[in-house]
Input
Amino acid sequence: MMNVLFMLLYFIIIVLVIEISVTLMKLTGLKSTVARFQVISMLTGTGFTTDESKSIIDHPVRRKISMFLILFGAFSLAVIISSISTLLTDDLRLMELSIIIGILLVLTFLVKVPFLNNRFDEK
Output
């Protein structure tokens, strides 16, 4: 049961990272649909189209976001595989995951606040 809860909490973290990244990509000027597709592509390591990849690689902020997503995706795959292999372990660090989710929820809220979006957009 604890392992299922751990996996659920970790998937919540992944969804929050996707939402934060999509918002940040939109702030750099990408359309919402393109941003979401690119973020999920980078996170899952499935690749993305050459026309759209050029718009990400040529932009310094988008490139940094994409590097984070590629690394986070690889790390997430390792975490998910190791958590599946430790079905019998009780030490799943649920408190730490809950704190991370709380921090990511605050970040998700902050990147979606219109006032902050306008400030980032100006820069």
Observations:
- The chain has one domain: 15-25+33-116.
- Residues 15-25+33-116 form one domain.
- The radius of gyration is 16 Å.
- The helical segments are 2-27, 32-44, 50-57, 60-85, 94-112, 114-122.
